[in-house]
Amino acid sequence: MSTPRVDAAALRRELEDLVRTPSVTGSEDAIAAVLADRLEAAGLTVEVFHPDPAAIRDDPAWPGEEVPRDTLPVVIGRAGPAGGRRVVLSGHMDVVPVGDPGTWTVDPWGAEVRGGELYGRGACDMKGGVASILGAVRALRDAGVFARLTGELVVGLVPSEEDGGQGTLAAIRAGATGDAAVITEPSGLDVVVAHAGAITFRLTVPGRAAHASRRREGVSALANLATLVAALEADEARRNAAETEPLMTALGLPYPTIIGTVAGGEWASSVMDRVVAEGRYGVRLGQTPAAAEAELRACIADACAGDAFLREHPATVGITGARFAPAQVPADHPLPAGLGDVAEAITGRRPSLLGVPYGADMRLFVGVGKTPCVIYGPGDVRLAHGADERVPLAEVETCARVLAAWVERELTG
Prior knowledge:
By secondary structure, the protein is of the alpha/beta class. It folds into 2 domains: 8-195 and 326-411, Zn peptidases (Aminopeptidase, 3-Layer(aba) Sandwich); 198-323, Alpha-Beta Plaits (2-Layer Sandwich), CATH 3.30.70.360. Helix content is 35%, strand content 21%. The chain is built from 12 helices and 16 strands. The protein has helices at 8-19, 29-41, 53-57, 123-142, 166-173, 221-241, 246-249, 289-305, 308-312, 334-347, 362-367, 393-411; strands at residues 45-49, 74-79, 86-92, 113-114, 117-119, 152-158, 180-183, 191-195, 197-206, 257-264, 274-283, 316-324, 327-328, 353-356, 373-375, 390-392. The strands form 4 sheets. It has a 6-stranded mixed beta sheet, sandwiched between helices. β4 and β5 (117-119) form a beta hairpin. The longest helix is centred in the middle third of the chain and has 21 residues, at 221-241.
């Protein structure tokens, strides 16, 4: 098996440029233009689609959204003849906000390198993986592989992953499907073959107002929220204990439930009469988001039924934002097996096959695009979304080498 040579210096410069181009979810047009130019320079035929977000919202498979938008730029590059075998390399362009800049020790958009790691918002999630795709494409071009392709390579670079996956849905509708797909989300260069899902919810919890000096005559909505949180904690324990898939049980808590925001109260000396809490509820492997929603609603309804006040004044549940279904590809499927063979040949280490507790666009390729898909990319996902986010440059280069060799093996027969 040949290994097309990856230009490490060019790869670093490219990743620096990507991190220095802010692309917070909902504002991806600038980086889409950069990436379209880079793919074209690497020898791909490139199209930039701008599907109407309203039309995507009407799609039966619409995955939800958390950021209002009026643009949805999708970049698709192609090489090789159509009509035969097709493989897809995919990554998302959007990143989450920086948060409090004071918690960073570097400029979040500066792409500073320390100790072999490149720092910045999105470096790990997932501009490092996008750079790996670009590096792999250039390596294939430079090695003359494009002229020998017997099938089609499709590169799909998408917006809106962080708030649900509308970009990947639009790419799938534009034809970014195939016989196999690899998403270069951070996996520490292991292969993710299963991931959980998640839904976001809003819980509106009533109480009864009273003057603070007569608090026993009121009913605290905050105390009622505590009752419901206890019920959610018990529900979380039950749902996770019921899991039997070893890939997921190895995680310890594959389907977490959290309350992420709480708002309530209008006056410091009044008993709260209303609290609104927003949170995340895990979707179990093999379960639909709708079925998870039914479990969530049943949990809250049962908890309300067991409380004297909430029985008469029940809390309400609304589903908001993204709807991440779970996904799984069999561990013995040719995709993870073949990718593992290539990675082992190049690095000397066989990648582990993993399950992960978070949602990803993998489920859209598998469930909507009918395309077997795994996640394989540089970086530690535990560093994603946090201050001092970073990715090892060596892993970015290794990922590019593995992708290039895998594509060559898959599409040159």
